[in-house]
Amino acid sequence: MHSDTVCILGGTGFVGRHIANRLANTDVRIKVLTGHPERNRHLLPIPNLQLIGGNAHDEATLRRELADVDTVINLVGVLNDSNKPGAGFEAAHVELPDKLVSACRASGVERLLHMSALGASPEAPSRYQQTKGRGEQRIMAAHGDDLAVTVFRPSVVFGREDNFLNTFASMLRLAPVLVIPMPEARFQPIYVGDVADAFIQAMDRRASFGQRYDLCGPEVYTLRQLVEYCARVMGLKRRVIGLSDGLSRLQGRIMQHLPGKLYTYDNYLSATVDNVCSGNDLAELGIQATGLDAVVPYYLGGRRQRQRYSEYRRLARR
Ligand SMILES: NC(=O)c1ccc[n+]([C@@H]2O[C@H](COP(=O)([O-])OP(=O)(O)OC[C@H]3O[C@@H](n4cnc5c(N)ncnc54)[C@H](OP(=O)(O)O)[C@@H]3O)[C@@H](O)[C@H]2O)c1
């Protein structure tokens, strides 16, 4: 099977932009369906990319836009729940996958690659992980002769413009002491370029049909170690204080009512289970995981433009 036209849902986001860039200048036609085409015009220089304004939750829109597509990549996900129509966990993580499967079948799409998350399970402690887990189940159940599906479950993803290390970096710049919840929660951060490569490698690979891939980087870190790593890379001398489990829970309950929802009770619940891999699924796709040191100093360390060049080369795989 060869993918000629790929439609990416959530293609304007952090991971989506990397996948689109990996497909740039290939013979694949890329359609990015977005609720905010004006905000995402920066993607238009990719010559084989078409930005389509439309609501991914509208079934008629989905069927229309998938009519000339053979492969769909679904990256839609939200970190915090919401009451706005289409914006909450249930709508983004469960209802949209259901609609997508129906639209794929109705439009003759043969390949569906779906982004879940490490730890996603209907039995997981947080609503984020539960809804991601139920959506993943729906996608896996849809696998068949007419529609080949593959699911990806990354740990936390890092790279320039990430939401994770950059948030800690912003806080570290502000004060000499940083108080963090759940300091011993364990993560295995994966580079966004490796996640993008996993999608590209799996796209036309028969061995990946019907499979789930847990995606992790080469090293396990506690949250405290990650924050201390950021401070070190930034050349800042900072004291990192970890909250107890009880205080972390309280912080989540209080902070979820603040604008921006930097930290919520659901985030606290997600961090009560380790976010690490038991094997190396990335290697099955022929990808060697990139460590923090190869990338993070170039966007948090204030290295000069000339030094950044080597990261750009790495991103472009040149
Ligand atoms: N980043 C991580 O550390 C990480 C870790 C594990 C799993 N994941 C999963 O990986 C996927 C991509 O993550 P990301 O970091 O690239 O996310 P992101 O930067 O927030 O991008 C998500 C994209 O999804 C679209 N979107 C958001 N809410 C939507 C909604 N309610 N309905 C329809 N579209 C919506 C947005 O596109 P428009 O605004 O253009 O419509 C946005 O560009 C998500 O499913 C996420 O759960 C991410």
Overview of this structure, please?
By secondary structure, the protein is α/β, with parallel strands linked by helices. The chain has a domain at 5-156 and 191-215 and 277-289: 3-Layer(aba) Sandwich (Rossmann fold). Helix content is 38%, strand content 16%. It has a seven-stranded parallel sheet, sandwiched between helices. α1 (14-23) links the parallel β1 (5-9) and β2 (29-34). The longest helix is centred in the N-terminal third of the chain and has 19 residues, at 89-107. The radius of gyration is 19 Å and the shape is globular. The site of NADP nicotinamide-adenine-dinucleotide phosphate has 24 residues, from α1. NADP nicotinamide-adenine-dinucleotide phosphate binds at residues 10, 12-16, 34-36, 40, 56, 75-78, 86-87, 92, 115, 117, 154, 156-157, 164.
Key structural traits:
two-stranded parallel sheet, 38% helix, binds NADP nicotinamide-adenine-dinucleotide phosphate, seven-stranded parallel sheet, 13 strands, 318 residues, 12 helices, single chain, alpha/beta, Rossmann fold
How are the SSEs ordered, and which strands pair?
Elements: E1 5-9, H1 14-23, E2 29-34, E3 49-53, H2 59-66, E4 71-74, H3 89-107, E5 111-115, H4 127-141, E6 148-154, E7 157-158, H5 165-174, E8 177-180, E9 186-187, E10 190-191, H6 192-203, E11 212-215, E12 221-222, H7 223-233, E13 239-242, H8 245-255, H9 265-270, H10 281-284, H11 296-300, H12 305-315
Parallel strand pairs: 1-2, 1-4, 2-3, 4-5, 5-6, 6-11, 7-10, 8-13
Antiparallel strand pairs: 9-12
Helix pairs in contact: 1-6, 2-3, 3-4, 5-7
This protein binds NADP nicotinamide-adenine-dinucleotide phosphate.
Residues 10, 12-16, 34-36, 40, 56, 75-78, 86-87, 92, 115, 117, 154, 156-157, 164 line the site of NADP nicotinamide-adenine-dinucleotide phosphate.
